Amino acid sequence: MNRDKNTEKKEVSQLFKITSQISDLLLSLKTERIKQKWNASWSQNLASLISIQISELDKKKTAVLYHNKIQKILTNNEDNSNIILYSDEFKNEQSNKLKADVIYITNLIINQSFSWNLESEMKVFDAELFAIKKVFEIAFNNRQLNTEKVWIFSDNQAAIKDWKIQA
Questions:
Q1: Helix segments in 40-149, DSSP class H
Q2: Which of 35, 50, 57, 157 is most enclosed, with most CB atoms within 10 A?
């Protein structure tokens, strides 16, 4: 006898039965609440998930602004649901060597810092792109189930504008 799948009665799982029977009891218990947030990678396109902001202020004022913003994020980041990364790159004029640095933070303690010595033939712009690429890799590799936001700070407007146009 073939029954249509739509008319077939579905069995409720045993786990569902048990949890529904004790649901009243669970409400009276002081249980820890957790965030159960899972973002399917296909649910939104990348451009809608990213907010790129480029400061029009000079470098010193922007540094102060970002420092204050980072302190505010860290103060409100009790559950470590925010990841903060800062990338910087520079060329030592005396040795003619490029270096890229990334700092990874989730709370008021610096979690990790990374540094790469790059080829002297590279241009500073390439080092900046390299650092931004590393920032994304570090953020991806350190994400947790409760990660809500990833904040990336970079002092390189040219690389960000280039990436923004391509995105």
A1: 46-49, 59-75, 124-141
A2: 157
